[in-house]
Amino acid sequence: MSIAADYSEKIPNNVDLREDRRLQRALESWQPNFLSWWESMGPALPTQDVYLRTAVNVGREGWAHFGHVAMTDYRWGIFLAERNQERRIAFGQHKGEPAWQQVPGEYRADLRRLIVIQGDTEPASVEQQRNLGATAPSLYDLRNLFQVNVEEGRHLWAMVYLLHGYFGREGREEAEELLHRNSGSEESPRILGAFNEETPDWLSFFMFTYFTDRDGKYQLGTLKESGFDPLSRTCEFMLKEEAHHMMVGTTGIDRVVERTVQLMREHDTDDVAAHGGIPLDTVQKYLNFHYSVSLDLFGGETSTNVANYYTAGLKGRWMEERRKDDHRLIDDAILVDALVDGRIARTEVAALVGLNSDLRREYIADCQSGVNRWNRILEAGGVARRLRLPHVAFNRQVGAFAGIQASPDGEILPEGEWERRKGGWLPTEVDKTHVRSLMRPVYERGKIAAWIAPPRQGINGQPFDYDYVHLA
């Protein structure tokens, strides 16, 4: 049975919010603070309205409505996927037991922490992308930016609903804090490092939505397995929206590479910077940075916390129920990346302790699919150069390789050599300045900036030259 969202309510929802007046009042008192945060930290470019999709249903059939809407009037709401009355916990020591509809007392603190960390990432990316509208390469891209922003705002609502609905006073306090931390703030930064980095240009935005939102996909995928059913159902619905964010990144980089190839062929040179393009060397450096920063989001290669989350039934593996094992892992082992006698190698650890590595490997394989796609564009354009993912030890600040400096090939380097050579692997000020110099807005229908190719198709069957955004 699909449950339609109730749009007659002040807070659209499909969780019968009107049946819990206390919760409804608490969320309605949080709502003005959210709108104030959106006004001060959300998209800075003034608009009349934007062609956005709004969730209207969580059924297996169509789930979203498209139309022009003023962003301040966007109906952020609370949507959970359909409940399976027969659902049972699929892993850990509670495997086979009915999924929990309330928070088990012994796991209260751990569950709250998991929800807060996930919730903190959602407004952070909106803050990071606040000023990008001022340099949008087309109205199509501007619309996609705003779609990502409003959905990250709704994902914040999703986590706040869980905090308010299931964690009492502590949950309400945590929900307030989610609006008080800010990306890059000296006094109260966001919890995870990648969400305090700048997103100053559209190449960074495409890399962020490809690599960092993909980390979000995998984190949501593990929480979707949770024995706490409201969290599971929340994450299942969020994953529907997350797919669009990654599409923006995937096709954005497609179009950057495609335009660079066109300029290389047109001018018979690898140095397209002089012709208003982004050189492949620069694309590779941005890829190296965003990929390595995103790898850090998975934490250390080994983690007793994650082992405990799994055993408790709080957080599973990616595609847990498709795994061909006992889903308890008590006697299993896994090889994880490690420094062994000063060399990059692998070592065997208990599978439960190595779950971060298991998830990171799923992510790396997924990231490679995009690189393969971009390389097919290079091949089709007759360009011999290929993009690639750097070694897992490259530019790491978290985990086994945080204490070393490694090249993209995985060679451990002395500190001095790293400092001399890192400008060949990570964006330099010269690279960033060139990319920023290209960031001139194009707000005319059907037109696009010269550094990126137009998309192959528009949104929801509309053409590229549709009026996606009406500026104020």
Automatic annotation (TrEMBL):
Alphabetic keyword roster: Oxidoreductase
A GO term, aspect molecular function: oxidoreductase activity
KW Transmembrane helix (keyword) present: no
InterPro entries: Aromatic_CoA_ox/epox, Benzoyl_CoA_Oase_BoxB, Ferritin-like_SF, RNR-like
Assigned EC number: 1.14.13.208
Keyword Oxidoreductase: yes
Taxonomy, superkingdom: Bacteria
Enzyme's top EC category: oxidoreductase
Identification of the protein by name: Benzoyl-CoA 2,3-epoxidase subunit BoxB
Name of the gene this protein is made from: boxB
